[in-house]
Amino acid sequence: MSQHQWQGNPNISVASSPNLTPVVHINTPLAPGSKLDMSIPFAEFLGHRHTKDPETNPRSTDMTGPIRHVMKTLGTRLVLVDGIDRLDNAELKTAFDYFGYLADECNVSFVYCGPGSRDVVNDARRGKRPGSPDGGSGGIPTLAVLPIPYSTDDHTTFHEIVKAFDQHLRLHQHTPGDLLHLATHLHRRTGGYMKPLSLLICMAAQEAIETGAEAITEELLDDQLVGRFCDDPILQT
User: Fold this and answer.
1) What domain of life is recorded for the organism (predicted)?
2) What is the 8-class DSSP label of residue 5?
3) 171: CB partners within 8 A, 6+ apart
């Protein structure tokens, strides 16, 4: 059964217009080894020729620059990536470095589709699967960022981060320090990564306002469809 894994802005709005291409759909390329390989499916969807001269020089050229320009110009906000399960361990880093680059440059959200896509995305994000043997990243400079640790002996950094969120909450029933009491649950739900942590807290706060609860609780956090990992107890029910 096919699964879908969403990464991006949950409040995304996709408009329809003859002059816009709000959604791009690609199939994951087979055996991608560089950003050139990753750029071709995007170029084909957008109708761009990716060979210098089909008659005399049929070799493809890197289309990253042109597709980035076109996606920005045409208002692309969502990219559907099919067949993410076809990537093997050595190809994950190249692919996700490229998707992350486009997400940041073009302000787009990605939906990954395919059997086990949730596990593929979460494992790649948490560094469980090895990258390419040569340590390359498809020509895109990258910085490996480890999750924020959390244990009995090493919790200060995560507590300081949660405390900063806690201090900025403006909920009528929120008492300073309430969010800090949920630090263990927050770390379990987000794996110590900043982006899902921010999304989880923001979405919970939004629901707290909409429902009139005006406070973030563990139950409210569990209602949010972000920051879930395969070892999260909520997925075992």
Assistant:
1) Bacteria
2) E
3) 205, 208, 209, 214, 215, 216
Q: Which residues contact 140 (CB under 8 A, 6 or more apart)?
A: 35, 97, 98, 101
Query: What is the DSSP annotation of 30-92?
Result: SS--SHHHHHHHHHHHTT---EEETTTEEEE---HHHHHHHHHHTT--EEEEE-GGG--HHHH
Give this prediction's pTM: 0.46
Residues 188/221, Cβ–Cβ less than 8 Å: no
Residue from 227, 10, 35, 28 nearest 113 by CA: 28
Residue-range domain boundaries for the chain: 3-126, 156-236
**Which residues does residue 92 pair with via DSSP β-bridges, in sequence order?**
none
CA distances from 39 to 7, 9, 28, 43, 45 (A): 19, 23, 10, 6, 10
When pLDDT is cut at 50, 70 and 90, the band that residue 9 belongs to is very low
Helices (H), the chain: 35-45, 64-73, 89-106, 117-126, 156-168, 183-190, 194-211, 218-222
Name the DSSP class of 112.
E
* pLDDT tens column, 14-44: 444 457 889 999 988 877 767 778 888 898 8
Chain mean position to CA 203? 16
Q: Are the C-beta atoms of residues 77 and 12 closer than 8 Å to each other? A: yes
Three-state secondary structure call for residue 3 = strand
Task: State both tokens at 9.
Answer: 């802005």
